[in-house]
Automatic annotation (TrEMBL):
Listed name of the protein: YvlB/LiaX N-terminal domain-containing protein
Name of one Pfam family that matches: SHOCT-like_DUF2089-C
Organism of provenance: Phytohabitans flavus
Domain YvlB/LiaX N-terminal span(s) in chain numbering: 3-31
InterPro entries in alphabetical order: YvlB/LiaX_N
Amino acid sequence: MNEQRRQILEMLAEGKITADEAERLIDAVERDQPVPPPGAALSPKTRPRYLRVVMDDNSDGGAGRINIRVPLQLLRAGVRLASLVPPQVLIRVNAELDKTGVPIDLTQLKPQHLDDLVEHLDELTVDLDQPDTKMRVYCE
């Protein structure tokens, strides 16, 4: 962990800054990382840390912009926790999800499925019914 990131986390732990401020500072520090000189060895592809969902509504009276960033570690933890739920409960949850129009089989959800999804999700554009609205789903 670099020194700047450690200092930001210490300020957060001491209550000097909020979690949102810490996130903005860490993002700024990551953006300001020096570019390696030409010919330098490229680092292996870093593992994505966030699932980002961005929607821009440019229509008249539109909602504007929605920008959601979900830590992938949270999703991974949820998948691992789902493996601890008894199968009888998962069957009941699946039935309730299906009733609400979400046909997901939680009994088939495995950590490697999430990793496969993240690995293959470069950038997905979701077409919406409104021509002036764009939605992007991607990992960063």
